[in-house]
Amino acid sequence: MNSVNLNRRLLLGAAMLAGMTGTACAQTRPSRNLTVFKTPTCACCDAWIEHLREAGFTTTIAVLPSLQSVRSSGGLPDALASCHTGRIDGYLIEGHVPAQDVIRLLAERPTAVGLAVPAMPLGSPGMETPQGHKDPYDTLLVLRSGATRVFARHNQSA
User: Fold this and answer.
1) According to the 3-state scheme, what is the secondary structure of the chain?
2) Tens digit of pLDDT for each residue in 1-38?
């Protein structure tokens, strides 16, 4: 075999490897497809869904009479419940979690159930007020043990 054929084979092999690497990277990109479970009467849920769509998420909405089974099957403690639950890429997103926190969660991929913003703090996405009032609140990382830790702080006074 002459050196021209050998170099051509090496070049083809390198090109194939580079192409496969690009494909593998594209396949591991976090999903932007979010399923949102909500009750029929929740208006703030629709505003939160719009917030996520504006951030580039694609949403599918499932209307249920109760969300307790969605939360419990995903390992989310009842104490962290809010008015809607999202499911994305193996994580639960409970309540009015800002889109940037979901993006960070998907980038960092911690071992966790997901994120939660318990209750419905004013000024969180979907809970904006005409007067612009913003309560301070935390986005919590929910660990598989049920414990939580602060993932992000919002509307904190300086």
Assistant:
1) CCHHHHHHHHHHHHHHHHHHHHHHHHHCCCCCEEEEEECCCCHHHHHHHHHHHHCCCEEEEEECCCCHHHHHHHCCCHHHCCCEEEEECCEEEEECCCHHHHHHHHHHCCCCCEEEECCCCCCCCCCCCCCCCCCCEEEEEECCCCCEEEEEEECCCC
2) 555 554 555 444 444 444 444 434 444 566 789 999 99
